[in-house]
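Ops channel
N.P.: pipeline sanity check, posting one input/output pair.
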């Protein structure tokens, strides 16, 4: 039987605060999870999420789109890329990341079922 389920990201099922500098709003429908990350200026994964999850680098695979602001991602091997508005991204596990500039970076990400959850 067909079904439809929806939830507005403005009223998420869960909000996961970062140590400082932002939060991730989470909506989960069945086995699908979508997050809206608001990464404030000064946010850096190694400062704001690493203390929550306890891994040396981010071990989550991110797939999504940046809608505002910019973020630089550095893979564990040193490879770097910056994503900005309109950029669709695929970021494999093993990275650090930080906000570039004075504007919050807002990303929609489907790879966040376990993101920023205490381990």
């Amino acid at each position: 039987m067909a079904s439809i389920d929806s939830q507005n990201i403005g009223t998420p099922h869960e909000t996961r605060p970062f140590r400082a500098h932002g939060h991730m709003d989470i909506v989960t429908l069945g086995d699908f999870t979508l997050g809206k990350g608001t990464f404030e200026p000064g946010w850096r994964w190694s400062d704001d999420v690493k203390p929550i999850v306890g891994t040396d680098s981010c071990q989550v695979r991110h797939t999504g789109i940046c809608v505002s602001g910019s973020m630089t991602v550095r893979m564990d091997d040193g490879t770097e890329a910056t994503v900005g508005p309109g950029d669709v991204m695929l970021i494999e596990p093993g990275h650090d990341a930080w906000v570039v500039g004075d504007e919050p970076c807002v990303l929609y990400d489907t790879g966040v079922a376990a993101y920023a959850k205490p381990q």
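N.P.: looks fine end to end. The domain at 14-109 is CATH 2.60.120.10 (Jelly Rolls).
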